[in-house]
Specification:
Length: 310
């Protein structure tokens, strides 16, 4: 089942039995076929060790930043060879396979940075197009303009695994906590952040932002990453992370391709949210004009906070 946040904003937590989750860390190159082969080997290894949910990083299919070269290999979802291969693999292994993202043709001049959650029967259970485009100028001189090639998504998406509801995000979305809060308020107890963080931003912010999203929402956060120096010269940070709802790191990769895994116990989500009910206590704010003052002030709505139970 998949839904936008607004479809299920009042639904309770969906919690089942503990399960093993794995994150595949890659160093994606330009060749789609080579990347599919590399990812598939790691996915098989993770499934062989008992993982029933496996996540890959952002840009699993190709790490091609040249717009002309990208569009030369771009396919629509129905004909994309990587997606077809991963659907067949999920069915073969009988797992939930979360492809962090593929570049999918979304028109003659734009692509979508699209995440796919594939079920054990090979069906696509959820799709999510990255909402926040990485348009930045970094201190080291690197310049990224994701919006030149990609069309931003407009809908926040969650889906139900047998054990837990998962909220879908991609990479730069990590810097926008309102999205994560909305997914948690809609009943997601596990938040996915497949990424290709740069080395520069990763060294500064990766761990603290991921742990903050887990702590703020009382959710598991699972972030499969790209790592190392890629064929196109881009350096990514690696350090795929599995974080529990208390903000503790359960598993962490280095910078090399491979996979990590951990047992996810959905009961921990309910326990942490009972201990610190920040999702219930939070108040929303809006900027309102202050009469006669020519300025704005913050107005709170919703129930008053009940206090911190820590």
């Amino acid at each position: 089942m998949t839904a936008s946040v607004s479809d299920a904003a009042s639904r309770p937590l969906h919690l089942g039995a503990p399960f093993k989750a794995a994150l595949v860390q890659m160093r994606t190159a330009k060749s789609v076929a080579a990347n599919v082969e590399a990812a598939s080997g790691l996915i098989r290894a993770a499934a062989a060790e008992g993982a029933t949910y496996v996540q890959t990083p952002e840009m699993t299919g190709t790490m091609e930043e040249n717009r002309q070269a990208l569009f030369a290999v771009l396919q629509e979802e129905e004909t994309d060879p990587a997606l077809a291969a991963f659907r067949a693999l999920a069915k073969e292994l009988g797992i939930h396979l979360h492809i962090g993202s593929l570049a999918i043709k979304a028109g003659s001049h734009r692509a979508a940075n699209r995440s796919f959650l594939i079920g054990p029967a090979g069906a696509i259970l959820a799709r999510y197009d990255k909402i926040h485009m990485f348009d930045v100028d970094l201190p080291n001189g690197d310049v990224y303009r994701e919006s030149e090639a990609y069309r931003p998504g407009e809908i926040a998406v969650h889906a139900d695994l047998p054990e837990i509801r998962i909220g879908l995000t991609i990479c730069y979305d990590l810097r926008f906590p309102a999205l994560f809060r909305a997914l948690a308020e809609a009943g997601a107890g596990m938040l996915a952040v497949p990424a290709a963080f740069t080395k520069t931003t990763g060294e500064a912010h990766w761990h603290v932002l991921l742990r903050a999203r887990a702590i703020e929402t009382g959710s598991f956060v699972l972030a499969a990453a790209q790592g190392g120096t890629h064929e196109n010269g881009r350096e990514t940070f690696g350090h795929s992370l599995i974080i529990d709802p208390w903000g503790r790191i359960l598993a962490e990769a280095g910078t090399e391709p491979g996979f990590i895994s951990a047992v996810i116990d959905p009961a921990e989500v309910a326990a942490v949210r009972r201990r610190i009910p920040s999702l219930e206590n939070g108040r929303r704010f809006e900027l309102l004009p202050e009469p006669g003052a020519g300025r704005l002030h913050l107005a709170a709505s919703g129930p008053a906070p009940a206090g911190d139970a820590a």
